[in-house]
Specification:
It contains 20 helices and 13 strands. By secondary structure, it is an alpha/beta fold. The strands form three sheets. A six-stranded mixed β-sheet has the order 1-6-5-2-3-4, sandwiched between helices. A five-stranded mixed β-sheet has the order 9-13-12-10-11. A two-stranded antiparallel sheet has the order 7-8. Helix 10 packs across helix 11, helix 13 runs parallel beside helix 15 and helix 16 packs across helix 17.
Length: 425
């Protein structure tokens, strides 16, 4: 059933609100439907926050529905007040056009734009031609100012100041939905939860003018465990363009997520099966780090391609080590192959079994591998919390035993970037 996509998105936590869940399910089951999501070209690249709407579009398109990606060349001239504490910087038409080209190229990586597939439409095609007085008479008369002021996007800006041009944004977005419903038979709009008021306004406008039923779905706005907006770092936004956020930095952003966030992020940002995600989220210690590697690899592959993701993974392993060098933790065959190749390139120390049987301490092993020049240096490293055995911090010197090896391999690491795999011979 075509409405199964709703069940899938709900299971992944990707649906925050729906105007009429039952009615929408019936519509989707009646045959392929057209839906749209808007992207205002306020920059020449999308960022991590844009991935949720993109992934939802991918889910719907894979279920047989027809996406429309609206490039907000018209609405970007006004500026969306939703989720903003102050008015956006006004962009020139030339800047908006240039930004639109960059975003269009990025969307083509994720969605099928072949004949009968996704359509990219610029709302400047109809908004730029509007005659203001006619627009007020035909569209503005359907909007109540009192009701508009109850919208969260407006209420939170009243104290800091809401410009008149921003106040018009809801009308323009509602008009977009009306035009798309009228001309493209598009009856579903989706967006972030901060778009709820704008989406509902469009549904009401369609009902008043066209006497048709339409639907709205919103996604949750993702925040970190600390309540901060997801996709922000000390260096600013995490962009989808490699020119703005290098691929390795993009990979490391996901690799360094909080342990408590891993299951949610895997459900939101990958297409891995739900039962596999549940299994990965149960791991602890090295296992949870392996789950983070899988998350980072899968999202990087989605955005930048598998070859770039493999290079980022291998570079990260060469600098920081591998969470699961023996590939013991069940995962996708794709990353198992990449992990095996990366592990094969790790700097390696071959240790004779007779040497192990005769007795060798961790301190001696670090020196033998060339990770330190003296026992004192290794002990200082241990005291400072910078010595690791198989991803676990070493608290004191002790003999190395067969139990430390898995498949005749172990990993020792000094600090964050220097490590060796030790192989028994």
């Amino acid at each position: 059933m075509s409405s199964q996509v709703l069940n899938e998105l709900e299971a992944r936590g990707l649906i925050y609100q729906c105007t009429d869940r039952k009615g929408l399910a019936e519509l989707l089951d009646s045959g392929p439907q057209t839906f749209y999501i808007g992207f205002d070209p306020t920059a020449d690249s999308l960022h991590v926050g844009s991935l949720i709407p993109i992934i939802v579009m991918m889910h719907f398109q894979r279920a047989g529905h027809r996406p429309i990606a609206i490039l907000g060349g018209g609405t970007a001239m006004v500026g969306d007040p939703s989720g903003k504490t102050e008015m956006r910087k006004m962009l020139t038409p030339e800047q908006i056009e240039e930004n639109g080209r960059g975003i269009a190229a990025q969307l083509a990586r994720f969605l099928d734009f072949s004949e009968g597939g996704c359509r990219l439409i610029n709302n400047a095609d109809w908004l730029a031609e509007l005659r203001y007085v006619d627009f007020l008479r035909e569209i503005g008369r359907h909007f109540s100012v009192n009701r508009m002021l109850t919208a969260e996007s407006y209420r939170q800006r009243l104290e800091s100041g809401l410009s008149f041009i921003e106040f018009n944004y809801m009308l323009l977005q509602a008009y977009d939905f009306h035009v798309l419903c009228r001309d493209q038979d598009c009856r579903l709009q989706m967006g972030g939860q901060d778009q709820w008021g704008n989406i509902v306004a469009g549904i009401d406008l369609i009902r008043r003018i066209q006497a048709r039923e339409s639907f709205g779905v919103t996604f949750p706005l993702l925040t970190t465990a600390n309540g901060e907006k997801f996709g922000k770092t000390a260096g600013g936004a995490v962009w989808l363009a490699a020119e703005r956020t290098p691929v390795l930095d993009f990979y490391q952003f996901w690799r360094n997520c909080e342990d408590s966030e891993i299951e949610k992020l895997l459900r939101f940002f990958t297409f891995l099966p739900g039962d596999e995600i549940t299994a990965l989220a149960q791991f602890a210690d090295r296992g949870i780090n392996r789950a983070k590697e899988i998350l980072a690899y899968e999202v990087t592959a989605l955005v930048h391609g598998h070859a770039a993701a493999a290079r980022a993974y291998q570079t990260a392993v060469s600098r920081f080590g591998c969470a699961d060098p023996e590939n013991r933790i069940p995962t996708t065959s794709r990353i198992r192959e990449v992990a095996a190749a990366a592990t094969a390139e790790l700097p390696t120390l071959e240790l004779e079994r007779s040497r192990l049987a005769a007795g060798i301490n961790l301190v001696d092993l670090f020196i033998l591998a060339g990770l330190a020049k003296s026992k004192g240096q290794v002990r200082r490293l241990i005291d400072q919390g910078g010595a690791y055995l198989n991803e676990a911090r070493i608290s004191a010197d002790r003999p190395v035993s067969e139990a430390d090896f898995s498949n005749d391999r172990l990993i020792i690491k000094a600090g964050k970037k220097r490590f060796y795999q030790v192989v028994l011979k």
